[in-house]
Amino acid sequence: MTGIYDGHCHVATARCIPRQFVADVAGNVHAGLAARGPAPSVDRIVQGYAAQHQDHLADGLVAEMDAAGVEKAVLLVPDFSLRLPGSPPPEEAARLHHAVRQRHPGRFWVYVGIDPRRGPDGARAFEDQVERYELDGVKLYPPCGFSPSDPRLYPYYEICAARSLPVFVHTGPTAASLDYESAHPLLIDGAARDFPTVPFVLGHAGLTHVDVAGYLAAYRPNVYLDIGGFASTPTLRDWPGHLNRLFRLGLNHKVLFGTDWPLGRLAGGLKRLVDEVVHGPTVFAGVPAVERDLVLGGNLLRVLAPGSRPKP
Ligand SMILES: [Zn+2]
Fold it and tell me: Which domain holds residue 252?
């Protein structure tokens, strides 16, 4: 195995993650704690998260990647700016992430956010950003209020097809202020059918909606599953057992390892997660090494454009 590649990370910066999003996450944490006894207020939980989101240039993330043996990671940059106040517009987010990549050469791929409501001007601006910042893919956040098969996204997908860029699509639950109906994985079907050369990676789909996402991955050659957030999904208490069951479904050529860092940062960080996945007794029990290597990096390298692959 050449190394471990994390297909799902974010820069832990309050400059890109809107406060409302954090407040929504904190609201659920508070509900769980308050039901069991005295709990910190939502505001205090938000302040705790905010203190964890000061890694603006990803120095902390790179230190954790080094400790965990992660060679390179995908930075996902959702575009919340038409829905949640305090989010940077895509151009600014792309510039911030470009600065991160210049500071840490060779350590990150960057997928930038798009939103179909920006229309043809948005598609042109997106292509300019791809060119200027050498972006590697697209991050879609349908809970902001659109379907990933919205025809207004097709001009963007044409650009992805022409430039061999993968599209990462959030699926499943998210911040309580957003829409869950548009986060169903089956909504990718039209786009996946119409753009067969574009890889579509369904975010979190190895954790929630596994049945639907699993048959999409099995029968649509260009659909893949991400497992980002596996250790922080409230409904998956036994995540090593869950991942082991997932890795026995015959889909290991379609599953991408991802942590969703900084999620889980407070619970031991990247090294603890990677150690449990790679060296723990459960996650890859009974899974052939060649399939494990696909999950831990081979599939991601295949999804990315050949030009983006690290030189052997
Ligand atoms: Zn994420």
Answer: 4-17+55-306
Q: Is residue 183 domain-shared with residue 38, that is, in the same domain?
A: no
Among 11, 3, 7, residue whose Cα is nearest residue 68: 3
List, for residues 84-121, the tens digit of each pLDDT value.
988 999 999 999 999 999 999 999 999 999 999 998 89
Q: State the distance from the centre of ligand 1 to the C-alpha of 152, rounded, in angstroms.
A: 24
Task: Give me ligand 1 centre to Cα 10, in Å.
Answer: 6
Residue 141 CA to ligand 1 centre (angstroms): 10
For residue 232, the CA-to-ligand 1 centroid distance in Å is: 11
CA 186 to ligand 1 centroid distance, Å: 19
150 part of a folded domain: yes
In the reported structure, the alpha carbon of residue 4 is separated from the centroid of ligand 1 by a whole-number distance in angstroms of: 18
Distance CA 159, CA 151 (A): 14
Longest distance between any two alpha carbons in the chain, whole Å = 55
Length of the chain: 312
How far is the centre of ligand 1, averaged over its atoms, from the C-alpha of 183 (Å)? 14
Q: What is the pTM of this model?
A: 0.94
Q: Is residue 129 part of a domain?
A: yes
State residue 233 phi and psi, 5-degree precision: -85, 115
pLDDT(279) > 50: yes
Q: Are 40 and 178 contained in the same domain?
A: no
Give me the half-sphere count of Cα atoms (radius 13 Å) on the Cβ side of residue 189.
11
Q: Kindly give the distance from the C-alpha atom of residue 233 to the centroid of ligand 1, in angstroms, as a whole number.
A: 12
Q: Does residue 42 share a domain with residue 13? A: no
- What is the number of domains present in the chain? 2
**Ligand 1 centroid from CA 260, angstroms:** 5
Torsion over CA: 207, 209, 211, 215 (sign): negative
Q: Is residue 49 very low, low, confident or very high in pLDDT (cuts 50, 70, 90)? A: confident
Nearest to 89 by CA among 179, 16, 33: 16
- How confident is the model over 194-247, as pLDDT tens digits? 999 999 999 999 999 999 999 999 999 999 999 999 998 888 889 999 999 999
